[in-house]
Amino acid sequence: MIVLADSGPVIPNFGRGSTCVRDNHTFCWGWVKQHWSDTLAPALVQHIVLTLIAVGIGFVISLACALVAHRHGWFERPFDTFSGILYTIPSLALFQLLVPISGLSRLTVEIALVSYTLLILFRNTLTGLRSVPEDTREAARGMGLSESQMLWKVELPLAVPAIIAGLRVAVVTVISLATIASFIIDEGLGSPIFHALQSNFTTELIAAGGLAVILALTADALLLLVQSLITPWARLRRTA
Amino acid sequence: MAESRVDSGTGKAGEIEFRHVTKRYPGRRQAAVNDLSFTIPAGEICVLVGPSGAGKTTAMKMVNRLIDVTEGEILIDGRDVTRMDQTELRRGIGYVIQQVGLFPHMSVADNVATVPRLLGWDRARVRARVKELLEVVGLDPDEDGGRYPAQLSGGQRQRVGLARALAADPPVMLMDEPFGALDPITRERLQNEFLRLHRQLRKTVIFVTHDIDEAIKMGDKIAILREGGVLAQYDSPVEILTHPADEFVAQFVGADRALKRLALSSVGDLELLDSAPDAAAGPALTPDTSLRDALSQILTEDGRPLPVSDNGGVKGYVSVDLLTSALSASGEGAPA
User: Fold this and answer.
1) Is residue A26 included in any domain, yes or no?
2) Considering only CB atoms, which chain B residues are within 8 Å of A143?
3) Which end of chain A is more exposed for a tag (fewer CB within 10 A), N or C?
């Protein structure tokens, strides 16, 4: 008995013994304030890191493959099919499929998240590269731009709006999907959501879910801002 | 386009020679361009004109090798273009197309600076050149330089296209229906400004159009092509109007070719009549009125002679007979 008493109460205390937990109203600010720094903020940061890594790697792979497909047309079909198949696999199933290979690890999560960015980023980048008007292309050739100068000075800059449009979709998708990562690892906003579902605690569910939504909207707005800053010409084209 | 001095316009120009140039596309029986031979003297505007399918644009694009020659050779100042480095060749040739093809993501100034930057000019030189060129084509370097192509009118865009093509002071310019997409008023203004600019710069220009009136107006020489890329006639505008080589040329030039010839000279070029008793009392003509417009005015006044006045004073009179003799004189090879 003494031993048990020393090691704390026998009935587990989840550390959330506040009135918010006991009453379990729809939403309780007190809990959010109390657990911002020990639960929500770390989860939010982890979520951002998971997203950035996934979109970053997905962007590099997609850009490289789009450049190859732009130069060598035959490459478009196979990569399109490959990324299309990845995109159709249900996310939960993909996580489970990867566990035997890469374990219950961050690697598993990132592989799955990256695979969902490839289709949209590849498609948009390639479409962007091909969006250069034929007369612009001809004038550029006539002025003596080489293939690589055409790519760096004309095709890539003109592809930026399409690439950013792809990034916006990819980021929002990954932020949403990353909540499911908590089935694999205890990271990201999925953790408090998962916990809230198990304990049927609505405040935590709403707080973590709300944060994921706010994060997605913020990321989308940031990308829009970046686009308007680096492609001031793109806005004019619509009004002209 | 301002009458400003073009400092780096050294007036260098290249002679272009087509030697038995033929272009055949695989799988097509008829050649696109067939055994084309003619020489464009340095500093002159040569207009390639003809119906669609006559290979005008094809012939032009073989000069900067956007299209490869099948047989024969094209020489610029005696150098075969196919033996020149393609990039170097193209950077030495100004290229203007109907749709202009400005870079939508670059400002007007950056568009004009494209070739100088590719050539590695330093910043100060590029900036000075851009400013100068925008002034030459009648744009405001400070106000228009920072704008994007989408913010410009069609005429302004083609001015930028022209400035961009002139940027590195190329000895040769290729212009593919450069004013074809503009409204008639803007087109005429740009034609006139380009002619004035050309008198300063003296580039060798190959100018493609399907419009015979534009060809007559712009060309020092006109090459009329017929279907199948065959050269029907290569001559000065006056020669072509006066002595069309064959039925095709006569038809292409049009039944009004006498009127077109009249349009080439103005009243000021004539030896005016000292007096005309039956002269109309109508408004006097100015010396820069074209003979064609003068004839039209005379016809409006029941065919009576009209006075020509210069700053108030009557210099003389123009009659139908005078116009007729002017036509026959120019037909005998006298300068029009």
Assistant:
1) no
2) 90-91, 95, 114-115, 118, 164
3) N
